[in-house]
Amino acid sequence: MVITNGSSPKHISGxxxxxxxxxxxxxxxxxxxxxxxxxxGVGGFLCLSRGNLNSASPSLxxxxxxxxxxxxxxxxxxxxxxxxxxxxAELNTVIWLMQLIVAEKLSEAPQTGSIEVTxxxxxxxxxxxxxRRSKLESLQFxxxxxxxxxxxxxxxxxxxxxxxxxxxxxxxxxxxxxxxxRHPINKFFSVIDCATRAALRNNLK
Length: 205
Hints:
Blueprint: E1 2-4, E2 9-11, E3 24-35, E4 40-49, E5 64-65, E6 75-82, H1 86-112, E7 115-121, H2 124-127, H3 129-138, H4 153-166, E8 169-172, H5 184-204
Helix pairs in contact: 1-4
């Protein structure tokens, strides 16, 4: 697995989860499903406190569907996007997630203090953005060859603005692993994968 935070990438083993004894620690498993014919994407995330990682069951029935971010209970949220690619759907999902986290931190900070955020994604494009940040910003989010704005330039800018506020650990996890070889982290990720696929199917009916 590769972990990145607001500054530089690090490598950790599959058994490690970033920890900080002075903060409340929350894990977010982010995924998106995309239908190219309708240009519809459904993004979603599973929210789990670090303390519940070992006790929660990695099954869809163990998580309640929610319309509002609630850090007090294991939950799942989904949102529908109009987009042009799976990469855009994945990026929009993480942006939406961080926007919710920022709002939660601002409203709850006086009572709960700071929180530590770890975001798991199977999108290498999203996970690698932080390592590309310096180059993207130096080129002003333009193509080096054509000098035209990159397709997702505005989304990249918003992503980095939110990263500076949330300071998340972002971890890439390989998707669609064989059941027998899945690490517990992968098992929880498969839950949100199933949830976004189901939500997309319902959206297309």
